[in-house]
Amino acid sequence: MNHEQIQALALVVDEAAQTATSISMLTASVPELDLEGAYDVQRASMALRSARGERVIGMKMGLTSVAKMKQMGVHNPIYGHLTDAMRVNDGAAIIKSEHCHPRVEPEIAFVLARELRGPVTAQQALEAVGGVYAALEIIDSRYRDFKFTLIDVVADNASSARFVIGNTSRAVDAVELGNLGMVMEINGQVREVGSSAAILEHPARSLAELANMLAERDEYLQAGQVVLAGAATAAVAVEVGDHVRLLIDTLGTVEFTVA
Ligand code: OOG
Ligand code: MG
Questions:
Q1: Domains of the chain, each with CATH number or no CATH
Q2: Which amino acid residue places its CA nearest to atom 11 of ligand 1?
Q3: CB under 8 Å to 44, separation ≥6 — which residues?
Q4: pTM above 0.85?
Q5: Which of 73, 168, 222, 258 could pair covalently with 252 via S-S, beta carbons 3.0-4.6 A apart?
Q6: How many angstroms is it from 156 CA to the middle of ligand 2?
Q7: Ligand 2 being an ion, which residues bring their Cβ within 5 A of it?
Q8: Which residues contact 92 (CB under 8 A, 6 or more apart)?
Q9: 159 Cβ below 6 A of ligand 1
Q10: Could you report the per-residue pLDDT of 66-117, keeping only the tens digit for each?
């Protein structure tokens, strides 16, 4: 894949995200697109956002739990970029019409106190963490029917759309990070129940894996960045009028509504 081809595909996924229009999988028309090329497309689409004034403020891991891998039929952890325009305040609303077919996921977020460069172990990765938070991620595949291959979802920035971080920060050693109970409710009804243990057996492993994947490209995580470790359960579709709330042991709640 040359620079022009990557650029052309970045324009396709960027336009789909900007206009909330579902598209066919890129690999249907470009079968030669490989995983490295897909991450190139993802970065090129982030450059388009940067040119419009958006700022990358963090990263997310995806497909880090068995529940998610089963739901999507893709079995490899992936990463995506998070920008300031994707951030929604705790308790605020997302606008459904800005998305194709949004779904919500219960997540754990890290905010880094120090930069984090791979290769690292899970333990070393935790040393860079300033705080742990409850978080909800709103994902929105730009592909028709929310169906994709590994390569397609990577090119589409791992379905990143919006994210909400709770107001309570805890230090890594103040929580039992490897087994925090998580309950996600929609309109007061429990929809998903899980544990942080579902995230690569421990969310710290997800953070380390992210640093290690970035190191393959000589990239690293910066102090102050947010990292979402990946959903602990399957994702749930949201509708206009919904009120979504996540409760995590020790970390408290985080919520949003859908307008
Ligand atoms: C890909 C993104 C998955 C997670 O937390 O597992 C993800 C998708 O399922 O659309 O964000
Ligand atoms: Mg997620």
A1: 3-258 (3.90.850.10)
A2: 62
A3: 6, 7, 9, 10
A4: yes
A5: 168
A6: 13
A7: 105, 137, 231
A8: 164, 256, 257
A9: yes
A10: 999 999 999 999 999 999 999 999 999 999 999 999 999 999 999 999 999 9
